[in-house]
Write a structure and sequence with these properties.
Elements (H helix, E strand, L loop, with lengths): L5 E4 L4 E5 L10 H7 L4 E5 L16 H14 L5 E6 L1 H12 L4 E7 L14 H11 L1 H10 L11 H10 L2 H13 L13 E6 L8 H9 L4 E5 L6 H4 L1 H13 L4
Parallel strand pairs: 2-3, 2-4, 4-5, 5-6, 6-7
Antiparallel strand pairs: 1-3
Helix pairs in contact: 2-3, 4-5, 4-7, 5-6
């Protein structure tokens, strides 16, 4: 199996952060800086994206999940806390389905249990059509702007644009195919790890029905809604995001 690139820093309990569509590990820079003094933070670049752009991307969410688990096997990380954003949230739901005993705590952020997203800013078919017509660079610019309340004027936009423009066309298309075929709803009730569902109230990728389905479907799940934030809460309000995540990870299990 091809080896994923990754960013890693710190010492302590492992925390794995999985980015979303057209992203990369560099999107977690603020979280890496915050958590690495007391955690072993591991940020993989999914196949076809970021520093793993040379790799062919699988056409299934399970395929991505197996690649991330394979990376953690290679790093000899057996048990860890796990956070997934957007498409990365789909990936981590598959990871906990495949390896439930390895995940201590789970954070599902700006994501949902279905690959076909009701209320998304455009349909998957429209994304595919525009991707084929306009190419990756223009698509990355258009989509990344929807991740922030301020659009292209947002402080985090240039980094997201740069990462998105590194993506392979094959990976961008394969991901859309993977979304269409994926539905994690039947597996929600089996998630036994303590789980936090985190969502920005102005998210244009996932409307409320998706995080609500996670919150109601996962036994005992906690919910945090960030008012006035869009899809990339961790870049718009990093201090508040980091505090929420840290409090959840540090809380005692009951």
């Amino acid at each position: 199996m091809p080896e994923l690139s990754f960013t890693r820093a710190g010492n302590g309990p492992p925390l794995v952060l999985v980015h979303g569509y057209l992203g990369g590990s560099a999107m977690w820079d603020a979280q890496l800086a915050h958590f690495s003094p007391f955690r072993d933070v591991i940020c993989p670049d999914l196949a076809g994206f970021g520093a793993s752009a040379a790799l062919e991307a699988p056409e299934s969410i399970e395929g991505h999940a197996r690649m991330v688990l394979g990376l953690l096997d290679r790093l000899e990380v057996e048990r860890f806390d796990l956070l997934g954003h957007s498409m990365g949230g789909m990936v981590v739901q598959e990871m906990i389905r495949l390896a439930p005993t390895r995940i201590r705590k789970l954070i599902l952020y700006g994501t949902g249990p279905r690959g076909v997203m009701p209320g998304r800013f455009e349909t998957i078919a429209q994304s595919r059509e525009r991707l084929l017509r306009d190419g990756v660079p223009a698509t990355a610019r258009r989509i990344a702007a929807t991740w922030f309340r301020q659009g292209e004027a947002a402080e985090g936009f240039p980094l997201c644009l740069s990462l998105g423009q590194k993506a392979r066309l094959q990976a961008a298309l394969a991901s859309l195919t993977a979304w269409e075929a994926w539905d994690g709803t039947p597996a929600l009730g089996a998630i036994a790890s303590p789980t936090l569902v985190l969502w920005g109230s102005r998210d244009r990728s996932y409307d409320w029905t998706q995080p609500e389905a996670l919150w109601r479907g996962i036994p005992g799940a906690d919910l945090a809604v960030m008012p006035g934030c869009a899809h990339n809460v961790h870049m718009e309000k990093p201090d508040r995001f980091n505090r929420l995540v840290g409090d959840f990870l540090d809380a005692a299990d009951f």
